Automatic annotation (TrEMBL):
This is 3-oxoacyl-[acyl-carrier protein] reductase. Keywords: Oxidoreductase. GO terms for molecular function: oxidoreductase activity. Pfam families: adh_short_C2 (PF13561). CDD domains: BKR_like_SDR_like.
Length: 263
């Protein structure tokens, strides 16, 4: 299947590692012009070098961007437009908020989660929409969490904010469908990334059990009996953001091996 991504202008935020990097790599494999961002120039430079080497695609570049800063987001989109003339695909991603229970969280924690995991998406979408409207097409995918559908233990901030991403996605898909702009959200289940390993360590410490025991139990609870791979998650995003997807919009998809039981 030709995904029609050759030469397309793609932005992937928070893409110096983990699921963001896997997603950027998948787009580069399809011949897209991929602009990635994160807060760390050194890790971004290394990621670009790795992606170019792995895919053979030299049209991969980076810009430092703090997703909590509106000016950085504006500069991110401006660089993509100056490079490629437009933005065809926006993949919104940001690091997850810290774990903890309700009484652990103060106002600063709540504001941080809101700015990082919801307001940043609002800002990036607001910047790219005019270009997509002008060309009467575009794809936006908001990366969230399985907490869009089902609450996760010790991830209160995510449980509160991520459903907002699903609501934003649904609303914008309805508003901009007439412009042929398809907007979806994708949430990972248990994908083997540094973030998951970190959360496992925290949970194991809280429970007083070895992390290896916790990992085996987690795998047992997944119907497919294994953690997902970053490239499996990325493949779903690339499809939704490609020309192969012409009628799926406003959806919140989980890539979780069947883990979440919510409908």
């Amino acid at each position: 299947m030709d995904l029609g991504l050759q030469g397309k202008s793609v932005i992937v935020t928070a893409a110096s590692k983990g699921l963001g990097k896997a997603t950027a790599t998948a787009f580069a494999m399809e011949g897209a012009h991929v602009l990635i961002s994160s807060r760390n120039a050194a890790t971004l430079k290394e990621a670009v070098t790795n992606i170019r080497k792995e895919t053979g695609n030299e049209n991969v570049d980076y810009i430092v961007c703090d997703m909590k800063k509106a000016a950085d987001i504006k500069a991110l989109v401006e660089k993509a437009v100056n490079w490629n003339g437009t933005v065809d695909v926006l993949i919104n991603n940001a690091g997850g908020p810290p774990a903890g229970s309700f009484l652990d969280m103060n106002d600063a924690d709540w504001y941080h989660a809101f700015e990082l995991n919801l307001l940043s998406f609002v800002r990036t979408i607001r910047e790219v929409i005019p270009y997509m409207q002008k060309q009467q097409q575009g794809h936006i995918v908001n990366l969230a969490s399985s907490s869009m559908k089902q609450s996760l233990d010790q991830l209160l901030l995510s449980n509160a904010i991520r459903p907002g991403v699903a609501g934003l996605t649904k609303s914008l898909a309805q508003e901009f469908g007439q412009d042929n702009i398809l907007i979806n959200a994708v949430g990972p289940g248990t994908i083997e990334t540094d973030r998951i390993l970190e959360l496992n360590e925290i949970k194991a410490q809280n429970l007083g059990v070895p992390v290896e025991k916790l990992t085996k139990e987690a795998e047992h609870n997944i119907p497919m009996k294994r953690y997902g791979k970053p490239e499996e998650f990325a493949n779903a995003i690339v499809f939704l953001a490609s020309s192969a997807n012409t009628y799926i919009s406003g959806q919140s998809l989980l890539v979780d091996g069947g883990l979440v039981k919510a409908l």
